[in-house]
């Protein structure tokens, strides 16, 4: 996916990885080790996860999602 693309995704977090999955295409959109996460910020239904050397991925709950299902992702 190119920079700035918005894709409906599912967020997965484990002890080792943070992943974003495009369930429709059955592809991993983003992944990193949890140890590479350097911080995050939240604003309402939006979340930014900072990783590596300050790069970040922006997430927000989709319309009508209620925060429990698909997420929109935008990698900057």
TrEMBL record:
Taxonomic superkingdom: Eukaryota
The name this protein goes by in its record: SI1L3 protein
Lineage of the organism: Eukaryota, Metazoa, Chordata, Craniata, Vertebrata
Gene assigned in the entry: Sipa1l3_2
């Amino acid at each position: 996916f190119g920079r700035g693309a918005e894709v409906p995704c599912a967020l997965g977090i484990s002890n080792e990885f943070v992943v974003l999955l495009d369930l429709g295409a059955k592809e991993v959109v983003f992944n990193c080790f949890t140890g590479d996460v350097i911080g995050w910020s939240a604003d309402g239904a939006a979340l930014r996860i900072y990783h590596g050397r300050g790069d970040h991925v922006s997430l927000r709950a989709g319309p009508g999602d209620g925060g429990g299902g698909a997420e929109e992702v935008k990698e900057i």
